[in-house]
Each structure stands twice: as C-alpha cells, then as structure tokens.
Write a structure and sequence with these properties.
The chain is mostly helical. The protein is built from four helices and no strands.
C-alpha cells in the first residue's frame, strides 16, 4: 500500500538513479548513522539519560529483534550478555 502518487514515486526514483553509486552509498550510510543515533537517544531517554548496563542488548532488540525466532534471539542475546 502506498499513499504516494505514481508520478511522484517515478520522479523520486529517477532522482535517485541520477546519483552515482557512491552518492547513493553515502546516503545509505548517513541514514544508517541517523537510525543508530535515534535508537541510542530513545534507549537513553527510557533510562533517565544514563546508559544502562544492558544497552547492547536493548540496541540489538530494537534493531534486529523481530528478525529472529524467539529461541534464536535468546541465543544471540546470551552471547551479547557474555561478551
């Protein structure tokens, strides 16, 4: 489902394809960095501005938690806790 008009979607696609592969890579890296900053801010906000001891686990859950079956997720989180 999309609420974007077809002509706008096509124009946006053309704009992206007009960029060089390097420019598209830089955009993707910038977006990834932004996601990490926002996730960190959210976790810190939940914890009163202090990085919790389980920060890495919380970060992983937010980033990848729905990508794994519960048993597999628990194995990964166990490894995170052990490291």
């Amino acid at each position: 489902m999309s609420d974007t008009p077809k002509d706008v979607e096509e124009r946006f696609q053309k704009m992206l394809m007009a960029l060089t592969p390097g420019q598209r890579l830089v955009m993707a890296c910038d977006m990834s960095s932004t996601v990490r900053v926002l996730m960190r801010a959210g976790i810190l906000a939940e914890c009163g501005g202090v990085e919790p001891p389980d920060y890495r686990e919380r970060f992983f859950r937010r980033m990848y938690g729905e990508d794994f079956e519960p048993a597999e997720l628990e194995k990964i989180l166990k490894k995170i806790r052990e490291s």
